[in-house]
Structure formats: C-alpha cells, structure tokens
Amino acid sequence: MAIEFALFKNHLTQTEDDCFAIVQNRQVIYREGLINRMTGRGLALLDTEVDRVLKEEAYAIKDLLLQGMTVETPLVTITPVVKGAFENEDDVFDPERHSIEFNVKLGDNLKIDTSLIDVTKVKPSQKSPLILNVEDRFSDTANMQLTPNGTLVVQGIDLKVITENDDEGLYFKINSNEVKADKYFNNTDSKLEVKVPLSLEAGSTCQLEVRKRYKGNKKLYIFKYNVDFTVAGS
C-alpha cells in the first residue's frame, strides 16, 4: 500500500508556482485493527489480553502525565509544555490565557526507514476548501487556542464563502453543538478573518469546519480541520 498525495497551489508564499502536498485517500487503522495485527502473528495472545494491556498502559501514562512527568518508552516520548504569552517575569500561569499541551516524539522502536514506503502522486480526490493554518490574534498563537470575541485568521485554499447562505461559512464545533461565525472582516479564497463567537464555553475543546458551494454547483463541500482548539476565557 502506498501513500497517495496530491499537489495544491500554495497561496501562503510569494513564489507563484509553489505547491504543497496533501495526503489523499488515507487508510486509518483503529484500535481493533491494531489488536488483530498483534494477535495475528501466531503469538499466544488473546484479543482480550492485548486490549487489557493497552488499557492499563494508557491509564498509567495518563496518570503520570497528570503528575507533570515526561513519559519515555521505546514507542514514544511525551513531554508536557506550557503554552501562551506571559506579560512579564512576574506573571503567573492563568488557565484563561495559558495552557498545558504535550509534545510527542516517536521512540526507537518506531523509527522507520521512510525510503521503504511507496509514494504515489495522484489527482485530488475531490474539490474542497482547505484550511492550512489558524491564528488566534488575541493570544498570538497558531493552531492552539480560540479567544471568544477575539479575531481569528484562517488561511488556506478556496475558503471564500457566501455568508448570506444559512449553511455556508466557518463553523465552531464543540461536541454535538456548533456555532457559525457571524462577523467576517476578510472573506477571500486564501483567508477568512472572523470574530470568534462569544458564546463558546471557556475550557472546552473546539474544532473548525468550512462549508461552501462552488459556483454552478449545488453540492455543499465541507472541510474539517483536524486540530483540537482550547477555548480560552474571554
């Protein structure tokens, strides 16, 4: 199986012909598939045994991370980091302005010779808007935080939406709830600049979606940005 990628014009650089690659037709293996792969090698392991070990490992790692520790295993190293801007040397950690996140690095057992992976260039699987980067102006962070009532800058490709249409625009999704941006300072193919809805609950995890139609096409195209944002206090 090969990694399939398609090329898109990069409107975030000054070089006219610059392109970037986005993986297409991703094949995802979930927990059950991983367990089946582990028990299918002829080892004397039951699915239930592997499942129990994975659950206990996750419990132990989570408990250690909650104590502020760095966890290093042959598979992965997980390191806590403090994010956010501090006003001066006397400033203290404020959950409304700062956050704790984790850097993850593959361990020795997962070091891979990438030259062994097949790569194939393909045409884009479907026309779609694309989000490449999101900046929260109030916290001066990228792809991390959303500040209610602050300005959010979304950069990408084919982002321009018809805001008058009820089902087009930039959407903020928290669990099963969603809020559509109602104030746009900039609405172009390469950039959406909006006011973050004041109604977003502080401390919650939020994801972004762009929904739009192309000229002459009634189909609604949706792009989900695969980043979890933390909603800061307003």
Q: What does this protein structure show overall?
A:
This protein starts with a strand and ends with a strand. The chain has a domain at 127-231: Coagulation Factor XIII, Chain A, domain 1, CATH 2.70.50.70. The longest helix is centred in the N-terminal third of the chain and has 20 residues, at 47-66. 12% of the residues lie in helices and 38% in strands. The chain is globular, with a radius of gyration of 21 Å. The strands form 4 sheets. Strands 8-7-10-14-13 form a 5-stranded antiparallel sheet, with no helix packed on it. Strands 9-16-15-11-12 form a 5-stranded mixed sheet, with no helix packed on it. Strands 2-1-6 form a 3-stranded mixed sheet, with no helix packed on it. With 234 residues, the protein is mostly beta strands. The chain has helices spanning 31-39, 47-66; strands at residues 3-9, 19-24, 71-72, 76-83, 99-106, 119-121, 130-136, 141-142, 145-146, 151-157, 169-174, 177-180, 184-187, 191-195, 205-212, 221-231.
